[in-house]
Amino acid sequence: MVRASRVDIVTVAGLGLLLMPLLTMWHEIGGHAAACALQGGQVTEIGAFYADCDGLAGLPRRIVALAGVGVNTLLALAAHALWRRARGDVSRLLLWLIWVSEGFVAAGYFLFSGASGVGDLGPGVDGGIGPLAHPGLWRIGEFLFGLCAYIWLVRAAIRGLTAMLGDSPATGPTRRTLAHGYYLVAGVAAVLTGLLNPVGLFITLMSAAASSFGGLAGFISIGFAVPRGTAETGFAVGRSWPLFVAGLIATLAFALILGPSVRFGA
After folding, report:
1. CB of 194 closer than 8 Å to CB of 204
2. Got the DSSP string for 250-264?
3. How many CB atoms lie within 10 A of CB 213?
4. What is the pLDDT tens value at each position of the chain, 266 positions in all?
5. How far apart are CA 242 and CA 221, in angstroms?
6. Distance between CA 138 and CA 124 in Å, rounded?
7. What residues does 43 pair with on adjacent strands?
8. Is residue 185 a part of any domain in this protein?
9. How far apart are the C-alpha atoms of 155 and 199, rounded to whole Å?
10. What are all long-range contacts of 27-31, with beta carbons under 8 Å and residues at least 24 apart?
């Protein structure tokens, strides 16, 4: 008899606290700031949810704006490839969270900029890749692409989770613990970090809340999607206090250092 799948909530919280700052820095520093520096621009300020770049215009500036979504996509693809080959339950869970989170964020930027006209992919005067001709058409295209990509990712994530847990209705509590627990912890941690930014509520709402509670909202559907099969896999991830402590330290360091922002130069 195969044991029911289970994932401990403390470990899930630890993963949320660990991945929120790491994946955010990957977007801001590994994406925007790196693209700025590699093209000869000057990174003047890095906050928890933004990076400012001076000295670039035209195509180089647009590359900086696109770099965040670009590195999100690359990491999602790499994590997915590794997840398909992973064997241990902890490593499979970690890699699943990474590729799903990064995929959601990448697709979410298309949705957000398409709906609002601002943000990294905004095609208007105030957008990251603007001003472009016919910004309204660009916004419609971005929104539709982001919507289709997001729906596809939600379905792919549900299939992936089913492959790990099994398709029995008994996996429902584990699905909710994992998906909803991770979503809530990562979102709350991001918003609390955003409140430390000197720019104020704008950064909290447009960047921290939008990229966490908005960008990761697909986890809500994942938690409620319970199949009606009979298979159980015995997938089990126990309680790990060291992981929780590591995640707490990572989030606190991220919040205290990058929350108020780090400025460079005179």
Report:
1. yes
2. HHHHHHHHHSS-EE-
3. 17
4. 456 689 999 999 999 999 999 999 999 999 999 999 999 999 999 999 999 999 999 999 999 999 999 999 999 999 999 999 999 999 999 999 999 999 999 999 999 999 999 889 999 887 889 899 999 999 999 999 999 999 999 999 999 999 999 999 999 999 999 999 999 999 999 999 988 887 766 666 677 888 899 999 999 999 999 998 888 899 999 999 999 999 999 999 999 999 999 999 75
5. 29
6. 9
7. 53
8. yes
9. 37
10. 27/68, 27/71, 27/72, 27/105, 27/211, 28/68, 30/71, 31/67, 31/68, 31/69, 31/70, 31/71, 31/72
Domain-located, residue 1: no
Number of domains in the chain: 1
What values do phi and psi take at 118, rounded to 5? -120, -175
The structure tokens listed for 171 are 């996996």
Q: Could you give the angle at the alpha carbon of 188 between the alpha carbons of 187 and 193, nearest 5°? A: 100
Q: Does residue 60 sit within a domain?
A: yes
Does residue 254 belong to any structural domain of this protein?
yes
CB 128 within 8 A of CB 31: no
Structural domain including 200 reads: 6-263
- N-term to C-term CA, the chain: 67
